[in-house]
């Protein structure tokens, strides 16, 4: 155990945690932005550049789609100043686009699987937690990565944060900046050591005046916060009220058992393909998806929404089942992103079909084509029609919004 009197030392002057961009833009971590931009890249891949008019138009369309929910303005960041000029590190860092694109829109094999909805949003976030590593050779200069290597330091920051919150109940940005990141300079520090120092700090029993400052600039602090935001946006953490520095980030207890599985061996260093195989060999992804869906559906107005949708259409839009005992109302544009609680924004769906729809394993195009993920196709391929007739009362713009911007929860 590292003693309370220990003082970490920076291994090199510029040591810091680099999330996924040199210019923090926290809203990009929201799935409908991070993955929404990726989906729109896929439309133009191999044909246009990031500074092209075509890509600018896609960013303007995405901004319009998100203006009432996320509020990020990508429309002003187009042409030579487009979002990819400053922030393409987000997509590079997460292996979604190649390390060297030369300005042309290209996706990696992994990025293409995500964009094609072969990988669900839950699978994407779980794999990212398991594989995201510092130093990040995708975006950090080789000379900086070499300094990390020479110092014997390698960190899985997202896994570390989740592990520490499990041990200490919560984590604040202040604790991440003042305790966790400086202590990560120490190669032999264990999760128990991190937890001890966090608890000593909370008790006022730790003197950090001589500890190194690894977030010297305001952007460094914002960068550190993005590790917490990724876990928050993808449902692993719950943020309690408070200022940016002192807000408590806690484990989402609804999926705590599944988080245990993701963290079962923090020393594992899988590739993306290995992480997918590890997750596929267990029920962790399906359990997470089922519990997230159940939690989100338990809203005060859900019962009235179901009555309105089933009054408008009394049968499952996919299977034609009419038994009300097994029918539910599925939001097309999610409530989280200001989707209406109206019949025009809802499909009547059988329980299992609703689950597939909400988790992104079943998709319906604006013209009625039905698409299944690889996992869903194995069990449902022979049961699901290739296309359906969209009911007249459905708002086609809600369907288009989901098709272009959403990959399930």
Report on the structure:
By secondary structure, the protein is mainly alpha-helical. The chain contains 18 helices and six strands. It has helices at about 30-45, 55-65, 85, 90-95, 110-115, 120-130, 140-150, 155-170, 175-185, 190-200, 220-235, 255-260, 270-280, 285-295, 300-310, 350-360, 375-380, 395-405, and strands at about 235-240, 250, 325-330, 345-350, 360-365, 370. The strands form three sheets. It has a two-stranded antiparallel sheet. The chain has a two-stranded antiparallel sheet with strand order 3-4. A two-stranded antiparallel sheet has the order 5-6.
Question: What's a concise summary of this model?
Answer:
This protein has 409 residues and is mainly alpha-helical. The chain has helices at residues 31-44, 53-66, 83-87, 89-93, 109-115, 121-131, 142-150, 157-168, 173-183, 191-202, 218-233, 256-262, 272-280, 284-297, 302-312, 351-358, 374-380, 396-405; strands at 237-239, 249-251, 327-331, 346-350, 362-364, 370-372.
């Amino acid at each position: 155990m590292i003693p309370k009197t220990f003082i970490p030392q920076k291994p090199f002057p510029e040591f810091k945690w680099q999330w996924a961009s040199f210019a923090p833009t926290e809203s990009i971590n929201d799935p409908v932005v991070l993955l929404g931009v990726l989906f729109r890249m896929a439309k133009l891949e191999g044909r246009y550049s990031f500074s092209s008019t075509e890509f600018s138009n896609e960013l303007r369309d995405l901004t319009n789609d998100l203006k009432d929910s996320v509020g990020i303005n990508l429309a002003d960041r187009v042409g030579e100043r487009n979002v990819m000029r400053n922030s393409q590190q987000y997509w590079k860092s997460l292996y979604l686009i190649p390390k060297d694109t030369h300005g042309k829109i290209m996706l990696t094999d992994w990025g293409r699987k995500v964009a094609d909805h072969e990988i669900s949003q839950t699978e994407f976030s779980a794999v990212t937690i398991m594989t995201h590593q510092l130093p990040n050779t995708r975006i950090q200069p080789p000379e900086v990565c070499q300094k990390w290597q020479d110092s014997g330091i390698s960190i899985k920051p997202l896994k570390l944060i989740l592990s520490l919150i499990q041990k200490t109940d919560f984590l604040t940005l202040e604790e991440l900046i003042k305790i966790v990141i400086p202590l990560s300079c120490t190669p032999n520090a264990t999760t128990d050591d991190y937890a001890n120092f966090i608890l000593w700090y909370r008790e006022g029993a730790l003197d950090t005046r001589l500890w190194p400052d690894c977030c010297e600039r305001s952007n460094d602090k914002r960068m550190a916060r993005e590790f917490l935001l990724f876990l928050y946006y993808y449902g692993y953490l719950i943020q309690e009220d408070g200022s940016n520095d002192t807000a408590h980030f806690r484990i989402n207890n609804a999926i705590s058992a599944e988080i245990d599985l993701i963290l079962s061996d923090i020393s594992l260093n899988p590739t993306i393909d290995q992480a997918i195989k590890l997750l596929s060999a267990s029920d962790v992804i399906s359990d997470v998806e089922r519990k997230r869906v159940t939690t989100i559906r338990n809203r005060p107005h859900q019962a009235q929404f179901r009555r309105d949708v089933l009054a408008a259409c009394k049968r499952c839009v996919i299977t034609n089942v009419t038994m009300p005992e097994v029918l539910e109302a599925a939001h097309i544009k999610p409530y989280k992103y200001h989707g209406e609680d109206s019949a025009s924004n809802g499909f009547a769906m059988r329980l299992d079909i609703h689950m597939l729809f909400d988790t992104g394993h079943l998709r319906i195009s604006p013209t009625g084509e039905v698409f299944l993920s690889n996992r869903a196709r194995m069990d449902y391929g022979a049961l699901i029609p290739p296309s359906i007739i969209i009911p007249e009362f459905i708002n086609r713009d809600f369907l288009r919004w989901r098709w272009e911007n959403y990959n399930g929860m």
